[in-house]
Amino acid sequence: MGAQAVTHRTLAELESGFAALPEAPRDEGRVALIVRRPAPGQRDTPQRARLSAESGLEGDGWSRRPPRDVEAQITLMRRDVAALIAPDQPLPLFGDNLLVDLDLGSAHLSAGSRLRIGEALALVTTLPHDGCRKFAERFGLDALRFVQAKPTRGENLRGIHVRVVEDGEIEVGAVIRMESPS
Predict the structure, then answer these.
(1) Chain-wide mean pLDDT for the chain?
(2) Is residue 166 part of a domain?
(3) Of 94, 110, 145, 161, whose CA is between 20 and 30 Å from 132?
(4) Whole-angstrom Cα distance, residue 20 to residue 39?
């Protein structure tokens, strides 16, 4: 039996689908999926994991790939946007560490914002998460155009990067919320 053909959505389908999505939670949401990349091309989806300032998502390839850029330690993407972009593909294919039910837009979640993710604390970094050649190959050029479009760029549809500043356990379903600076 051959592999199922993957159909990429057009830019118009992505734009209209995004407009139809319900508003994502702004200040408090949930971790929908944890994705580790133990080796190139591999993904596992544990129910529980540990975030640490030293290794990011423990067991993920970030800690083994030089240079270990702390600005790109952990990636988050909205689960509903990922499902819109790739409805017939497994969500771990995106490669983002955490798929979340939370608005990641820069209007309220700017660089330096603090996120409590389960027991861990992370800071949103200044590094943009724009999509790349691999993203276009997996999901199509229109998907890349969609996440990079100027009118919605501030929505961070491709996701955001965070770095861990306080170690802690996380799990699928854990609360993720904005936290005021101390």
Answers:
(1) 92
(2) yes
(3) 110
(4) 36
